C-alpha cells in the first residue's frame, strides 16, 4: 500500500496507480503548487498539521478507483491529537469513536442489527470499496476548518468526478448539506444517491437516524451485481 512520501512536495507524492492516472492533471495544476506552498509555510511556521503526511491520501490508497462501490463524504479531518488518519469519520485504534461516528453506529444497529464495535477504526470498510473521503485533507491542530479554501476542495471535487465517470454503478451516501452540494452533479441515472442530515448530534435526529442507507446501498449493489458491503466491524481494531 502506498502513501505520500514528501508530505509538502505534492508533485512527488506516491499514490495508488489507478488514482494517480485519474488525477494526473490535478497534480500538474497551478492550484496544487499553491497548496504545496501553503503546507510548506505552515510547517515552517511550526504549526502541527493533521493527519501525518503519509496519510494525506490514505482514503485513496486504501480504496483504488476501480474498487469503489460506495462513497461517503466528510468535510475536514479531526483536529484533535491522534484522531485523524486520512479516512472521514474514522479514528485510529485506541481512540474513542467521536459523536458523529457513534450515531453512524446507532443507525447501523437500527438498520442492519449490527452491534457497535468498541473502536472507531473504519479501515475494514475502505478495503471493501467504501471511499471515506474528506473534502479537505489536512487541518491545523485544534483549528477546525483551518485549511479550507487552500485547494483541497478542488482536488477532492476531481476525485468525486472521477468516481462519477466510472462505468460501474456506485452508491453515494451524502450526509449533510455540505456533502450534498459537493456531489450535486452525480449522474443519478447510473449511480444511487442517498441523502440525509449529517450524523452529528446536532442533526442526526432530523432524519439521519432511521434513514436505512446501509441496507439500501447493499440492495442496490447486489441488484447491480457488484456485491454487498459487510458493514460489520471487528469488535476490536
From TrEMBL:
Catalytic residue list: 76
NCBIfam families (alphabetical): PRK05254.1-1, PRK05254.1-2, PRK05254.1-4, PRK05254.1-5, ung
EC number(s) stated in the UniProt entry for this protein: 3.2.2.27
Name of the protein described by the UniProt record: Uracil-DNA glycosylase
Localization (cell): Cytoplasm
Family in the record: Belongs to the uracil-DNA glycosylase (UDG) superfamily. UNG family.
Keyword NADP tagged: no
PANTHER family: URACIL-DNA GLYCOSYLASE (PTHR11264)
SUPFAM superfamilies recorded: Uracil-DNA glycosylase-like
Any GO MF annotation of the entry: uracil DNA N-glycosylase activity
Function: Excises uracil residues from the DNA which can arise as a result of misincorporation of dUMP residues by DNA polymerase or due to deamination of cytosine.
Keywords per UniProt: Cytoplasm, DNA damage, DNA repair, Glycosidase, Hydrolase
InterPro entries: UDG_fam1, Ura-DNA_Glyclase_AS, Uracil-DNA_glycosylase-like, Uracil-DNA_glycosylase-like_sf
Enzyme class: hydrolase
Gene Ontology biological process: base-excision repair, AP site formation via deaminated base removal
